[in-house]
Amino acid sequence: MAEPATQSLTKLVNDDSDIVAWWSSKVECVSALTRRRLEGTLDSDAAQTAFRELERLSAGWDEIEPGESLRETAIRFLRVHPLRAADALQLAAAFVAADGRPSSLELVTLDDRLAEAARKEGFVVVDVAMA
Hints:
Elements: H1 6-15, E1 20-22, H2 25-39, H3 44-60, E2 62-64, H4 68-80, H5 85-97, E3 106-107, H6 112-120, E4 124-125
Parallel strand pairs: 1-2, 3-4
């Protein structure tokens, strides 16, 4: 499924296949793909290809699972950044993955609000357009 950032994101994955993802990332991807298919902006063949690629990628990534510390961190992020709940959970998962040292981990996102909050928390946010 070709999107404006597809080529840059593919290059990022090919250059560094060590992916750490939040526990619900796969659910969010399935939601987005299914919504596009149901809206008619993604045909069935392309959707099946995208679902297979998601399965391949998710089989190789490390997942950060939910827990009390992650929830409390997400709540803190919601109180200081204009984030949606799902984005706060993603940012909290990255914080947990970085062992509380955000500058030790690069964060990849296409969401501007999440990117801004991540920068303010000390993460290195990858500029997908420059990847």
